[in-house]
Amino acid sequence: MKRISQTTLLLAGLGAIAIASGCKAGKTGQAATDEDAAKKVYVAPGKHDELYMFASGGFSGQIAAYGIPSGRLLKVIPVFSQNPENGYGYSEETKPMLNTSHGFVPWDDTHHPELSKTNGEDDGRWLFINGNNTPRIARLNLATFKTEEILELPNVAGNHASPFCTENTEYIVGNTRFSVPLDGDKDVSIGDFKKKFKGAATFIKVDKNTGRMNIAFQLIVPGFNYDLAHAGKGPSHDWIFFTCYNTEQANTLLEVNASQRDKDFIMAVNWKKAEELVAQGKGHKAPAKYAHNLYNERTHSATSTMENDVTMLDVKDYPGLIYYIPCPKSPHGVDVEPNGEYFVASGKLAAVIPVFSFKKMLGAIDQKQFEGDFDGIPVLKYNTVLEGEVQKPGLGPLHTEFDGKGYAYTSMFVSSEIVKWKVDTREIIDRIPTYYSIGHLSVPGGDSRHPYGKYVIALNKITKDRYLPTGPELTQSAQLIDITGNKMKLLLDFPTIGEPHYAQTIPAEKIEKNSVKFFKLEENDNPYAAKSEKEARVVRKGNRVDVYMTAIRSHLAPDNIEGINQGDDVYVHVTNLEQDWDVPHGFAIKGSNNSELLIMPGETATLKWAPDRTGIFPFYCTDFCSALHQEMSGYFRVSPKGSNVPLTFHLGENLAAR
Ligand code: RUQ
Ligand code: CUA
């Protein structure tokens, strides 16, 4: 009991420090008046930013792209949440993207954008992001800035430790935050936690050419709470390191009960070895139900397939597959420096930042330097793997990124600052306050073999007094910090959508050159496309009416449609005939219980509409596309059920009364 109350006090104390340091620090703000800082973030009108930053939208479920150094918001890319702004998740073509084994799930919580890598470097092809709540991983295509694929993860709950990329994007890896009974064994007492609740580390194979994802295997690991991971690089290429907390395996009041042990673990996994075992036919197929959703750029449509099983390896059965490294205390993540030799863990309740050596780890394994085992899995001796500790770094270390010049930058949640330290000597070089309560930070390329450096971006949890107040809910915020000198220098605060949980930042040139400007009409394979006005038509089959509509500046064809009856399901398939950059058309119908469509040039999108009453229903283009945009409109006539008004459609005819 005594121990519990001490821990509670410690945690309450940490919270208080966070708030106190946050409010006090608010007075500084020197950068806002610094002309030099203003010059460094000023991007003249018409000029482009130097970098793209892709930040998760946190509980918005989306990704947002910003220009750096200006901090200008360029685009919100819908991923796990419906987006009425462009019809994602509302149109018939994109609804299947949000299908899961639980049915249609129109929201999630995104945390960790991960750029695809070639030879350990960000290659600008794809961006992966996790859905935390209903475990999913999405892949975005950075040529189109569209979500192309969403894969649900079975046997997992709280897909937080995700997604992490191996050095050549061989795998995207995720693990469970909440250990749960495996899918085959569902109705289990929570009291059976220690026996029956398991972690499942998921290894998703990524096709080199198409980016297509498939679950290669899952490793059944002990029922802990898994936290962030990073794959090795260079010498440590074959390994991936996970952190875990709650090695106490508590299932109630985790705040206290999962903070008992002095050290939890880094779990080092030899993924190369796991891959070999699976190739040899080891492991077993376990029943699992999960959705695999794929968007096709040619049909402009998504399909959802339900998968039925997954290959699982129980790590207990394969010695040498994983090792534990003790790590203080409730570690929240592990980061691998550019050379792949040192890995750095951050215990959110720890007083030091431990830096481990990969070489020493291999040596310790070789010489069986074990301090014991957990469930048969060897636990290496802390000191045999440790290279050294960063002493007195600050309070609440969370995440570390690197600048490629031998320095590391660690975010400190509780003391609300970034600490710069030297990787080889572990001495602290500088610290800078963040406003407030920083979570992740992002150095461009900061988790890759060759960081671009130049900036570190603080991704904060709280803004308090930093912006004009907007009622109880305040904007979320990031901060841009110059790291070119010995001392870090705050340049800019900029608001973000949702919570900018984590971001990855990449030189613009790697993305810009591949950017798609429009979709070729002749490559449009959507079965409902009308590729010219001549093909525009309306077809009835029972109570289903398909409208094949075209859009071009500045009319929709057809624009007068009669003979729809109440009780019909109307599918309006709009094809944008434009073949030019930046000419989308929009589409909306009065009273439709749906969002608009925003149709890119060459694309087809479908709005489903069930008219709820008889009458005249105007429809129009919602995107201001030309001087005669206001004229881009038309009418539906909806008659009573069973009416004998013939189905007709027109364009360019002044109808006579019927
Ligand atoms: S975890 S703030 Cu959700 Cu990314 Cu450390
Ligand atoms: Cu098309 Cu406005």
UniProtKB/TrEMBL annotation:
E.C. number(s) listed in UniProt: 1.7.2.4
Location(s) in or outside the cell: Cell envelope
Species name: Mucilaginibacter rubeus
Gene name linked to the record: nosZ
PROSITE patterns per UniProt: COX2 (PS00078), PROKAR_LIPOPROTEIN (PS51257)
Signal peptide per UniProt: 1-25
Keyword field contains Metal-binding: yes
Protein name: Sec-dependent nitrous-oxide reductase
Keywords: Copper, Metal-binding, Oxidoreductase, Signal
Enzyme class (EC, first level): oxidoreductase
NCBIfam families reported for this sequence: nitrous_NosZ_Gp
SUPFAM superfamilies: Cupredoxins, Nitrous oxide reductase, N-terminal domain
